[in-house]
């Protein structure tokens, strides 16, 4: 197994309160597999990726275990694999690049870390090659551009080039198509799958069509995985009421909004965390709905690859 996460919990201290961000998340990624994560804003997708990459902020506390190739993913191990065997394409590409350094300088720095033997000229040439491979038409111009001179799509490709500097076994791509027009989105997703064909990919997205390009899908709500399975099965025959409502809210499927607000992460409900927004709850009898409101459902397997966290799915 390439990456295994067991019972991961991440919480943040904010003033005097504690905000849960990731709750009891367990997942396993085999080499070369492509997995998407979907879920509303604030459900813990980026925090999960940051926990794997070992870049949680100082006010975060985490518990649980993460193993990499069956070894505990310690700080020491992270230092040797991050940027090399493990790459992160962060959310918000323009904000992730240093505004006062050129794109070329930043990618050549990433390259220098994994290939310290390269001299200045070789670094320059290799960086241009990475830009070219990342689909940037004018590598030299991009090399000398500052982030403010790049479009969102170009900045995404610069981060893609940085992620390609190593030979990643796992790429964590956090909303790599956010804010892109349809054409650029399609090109970038295709490119992502092409250049990381031999890597495992954990692709965080709000875009159902992008999620559908992966084999497996995880649906998160309030820091938990509420449904997992083959992407095609989850997207065409969702089992969890949240997945059903999330898909129905998508523009291509009717744009029916999910009522209410995402869960309050400082005061989590005792029962099902989706109960106050669940369309199925009102159709249940008194004892069934009582169960939803008082007992927290576990993520139960249904079939070989699927699992769902709902008492009545
Ligand atoms: N540095 C932080 N301090 C306190 N709370 C944080 C911090 N970073 C994230 N959180 C909280 O953790 C929870 C999960 O955040 P996260 O960024 O993982 O959401 P997300 O699913 O990636 O959302 P989006 O789709 O908007 O990117 C949220 O409640 C968020 O407010
Ligand atoms: S456990 Fe109950 S409230 Fe929660 S999603 Fe299932 S039916 Fe809805
Ligand atoms: Mg995020």
TrEMBL record:
For this protein, the parts annotated as crossing the membrane are none
What cellular-component terms does GO give this entry? plasma membrane
- Family annotation (PROSITE patterns): ABC_TRANSPORTER_1, ABC_TRANSPORTER_2
Q: Which InterPro entries does UniProt cross-reference here?
A: AAA+_ATPase, ABC_Ni/Peptide_Import, ABC_transporter-like_ATP-bd, ABC_transporter-like_CS, Oligopep_ABC_C, P-loop_NTPase
In the Enzyme Commission scheme, what number(s) does this protein have? Answer: 7.2.2.11
Topology relative to the lipid bilayer, per the entry, is:
Peripheral membrane protein
The record's section on Pfam families has: ABC_tran, oligo_HPY
Q: Which reaction does it catalyse?
A: Ni(2+)(out) + ATP + H2O = Ni(2+)(in) + ADP + phosphate + H(+)
Give the protein family: Belongs to the ABC transporter superfamily.
Q: How does it assemble?
A: The complex is composed of two ATP-binding proteins (NikD and NikE), two transmembrane proteins (NikB and NikC) and a solute-binding protein (NikA).
Q: What is this protein called?
A: Nickel import system ATP-binding protein NikD
Whose protein is this, by species? Sporomusa ovata
